[in-house]
Amino acid sequence: MTADPRPLTPPTHGSAPADRGSRRSNDLFRGDRRLGLLLAFPATLAVALLVGGPAVQTILYSFQKTNLNTPGTWVGLENYQRVIASPNFQHSLGITFQYAVMFLVLSTALGLAFALLLNVPFRLRSLGRTLLIIPWAAPWLMVGIMWKWFIDADVGMLNGALYQVGLIDDYIPFLADTRVALVMTVVAAAWRQAALTGLLFLAALQTIPHELPEAATVDGAGRWQRFRYITLPWLMPVGVVVLVTNTIFGFLQFDVIFIMTQGGPGNATELLSMYLYKVLFNFAEYGAGSAVAVILGLIAFGVGMVFVRLLYRSDAGMGRAPGDAS
């Protein structure tokens, strides 16, 4: 019996259909991508016109000396130099960082607490989830008005409750105290933002497979260990969105401050947004006001990007992609 001289190579008659199937899948993918881009184009164009246009105009104004009565003249960086050297700007910058840090910590912590609470089964959980939407649905101006009445020095419910339980002997003018006014405005704004934060975290908690905490419990992991090694890594992608969003809202907050204090008492709550408002509308200096707006936007964007880099770097350092709990 002689050996078969033909080489032992695998048959190739099935490769052509496989290649055709691969090309068909790629064509379908490219078609879906083109369709997606086509559907997103109108919204992208609207955002570019409504946001990009005014943003470019603001940047151009920041290099000019202009107001309502005179045409703009190019002055280069003079507006930025004058604004940065202003003691009022430096004071507002410090107040803004204090406000943003307190707002970020309080709104994120409250939102996470709400989400963890409403993720546990109990009788009125559906009602609690519904009530969580109400603060988020309220406009910022309404939040400011409501909290201003709530802590009012004469008829405020907070003062009434504290007086009834004997914690205070007389009503306290919270918004007239330079040490307390900023904290009260932070609480008011964070109360509203915590609702959105809670909804985002709650949605992420709903996606955690039940097998993971159950297996960890069987292995002897406690509540804190399950939160640290399962829940927290799973929430990391949403946490990046939450931190960036809350950071931007903290630095750009205006409505609540304007309604509750208008930057007072004195200038104790004069954030950069309030300083910007006064420069633009009280002094009609559009060039300097545009420079403040550009600086404020760059600060908010820069701090947000720092959070993104730090969080994703720390997640990569743990040896897994964001959201991978394995």
Provide a descriptive summary of the structure in words.
- By secondary structure, this protein is mainly alpha-helical.
- The chain has one domain: MetI-like (MetI-like fold), CATH 1.10.3720.10.
- The protein is 70% helix and 1% strand.
- The chain contains 13 helices and 2 strands; from the N terminus they run αββαααααααααααα.
- The protein has helices spanning 15-61, 78-84, 87-118, 125-137, 140-150, 157-164, 181-205, 211-218, 223-234, 236-252, 255-260, 272-282, 286-317, and strands spanning 64-65, 73-74.
- A two-stranded antiparallel ribbon has the order 1-2.
- β1 (64-65) and β2 (73-74) form a beta hairpin.
- α2 packs across α13 (286-317), α4 (125-137) packs across α7 and α5 (140-150) crosses α7.
- The longest helix has 47 residues, at 15-61.
- The radius of gyration is 28 Å and the shape is flat.
- The termini are far apart.
Keywords summarizing the entry:
2 strands; two-stranded antiparallel ribbon; MetI-like fold; 326 residues; mainly alpha; 13 helices
